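Hello,

I think I submitted the serine job twice by accident. Can you confirm which output corresponds to this input? Input:
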Amino acid sequence: MQEKILVVGSSGQIGTELITELRKIYGSSNVVASDLRKPDFFELDGPFEELDILNPQRFHEIVKAHGITQVYLLAALLSATAEKNPKFAWQLNMDSLFLVLDAAKEGLIKKVYWPSSIAVFGPTTPRVLTPQYTVMEPNTIYGISKQAGERYCEYYHQKYGVDVRSLRYPGLIGYKSAPGGGTTDYSVHIYHEALKKGTYECFLSENTTLPMLYMPDALKATIGIMESEAAKVKIRSSYNLAGMSFSPKEIAAEIAKHIPGFTITYKPDSRQQIADSWPQSINDDEARAHWGWKPGYDLSAMTADMLTHLKAALQSS
Ligand code: NAD
Ligand code: SER
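Support: Only one job matched these inputs. Its output is below.
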């Protein structure tokens, strides 16, 4: 049967890139992009629907009109933005998930992808090589919504047989799209500023180590778990996923190998407190063992690739 995919929140950091990858696999006309707004900077070579995911009627109309079989739900408020508007963050992050899970429960769609985050962990979680199963007491509204979302995903799978799949993304880094209000956003901004100005003022302190993942690996994991046989996806809350871990000081040193003289300064803001509550590194043994996850990029390979692509984009603009 031909799969028909709806990506909700397709104009954001992940959606912009995921749409392109999904269209390569399933064909442009079978992957429907949807968001509040059209994307700023990529060619739409397939269907786009304007959708506020808080409008259930519009969501159902789109699902029916396109015969949608799978939904990737990416619309959310991320950690830093959510702290500024906690009530709305809870509404958006939770109501959108309920809507999509209920559509699967009612048989309107067959499969759901919903990303969780390292933000499900909190200050009482062991911070080094954080295991899949451990203490989870998140203290940000974003982390609380992701943890509740994970519980709902597992519940809908166990109670109603909903085929929902999820990954706890670390901070994601890519050259094609801008990050959307998270605590890890500095790790994208730093490359742009290094090339444009040769210097960067970081909003986290120099030794704040966080888990990160390069976008090609994130896309590989996302499509990988969605295409795995259902029996291999044994965890239906969300899988730990690791790529690399580094601090602002370490990424700056790596960039300086390519841009001699690059300097970094530190001016921690409210995002520091969020970062301090998150793990420094992640143990992803279950994802590796169950459905064959393996990352391809470390800090050095990612930095070389990011700078090559960003330099080329700057030269052609
Ligand atoms: P983003 O903020 O870049 O993109 C989110 C998109 O959702 C935006 O284009 C926005 O316009 C859209 N959106 C917002 N409200 C909407 C609504 N009511 N209806 C329809 N669309 C709406 O976020 P992202 O980085 O692409 O993240 C996608 C998902 O991955 C989120 O669930 C996020 O929590 C999760 N995640 C991201 C990261 C990361 O580092 N980027 C890490 C962990 C988890
Ligand atoms: N990159 C995300 C954030 O900082 C992690 O979920 O919010």
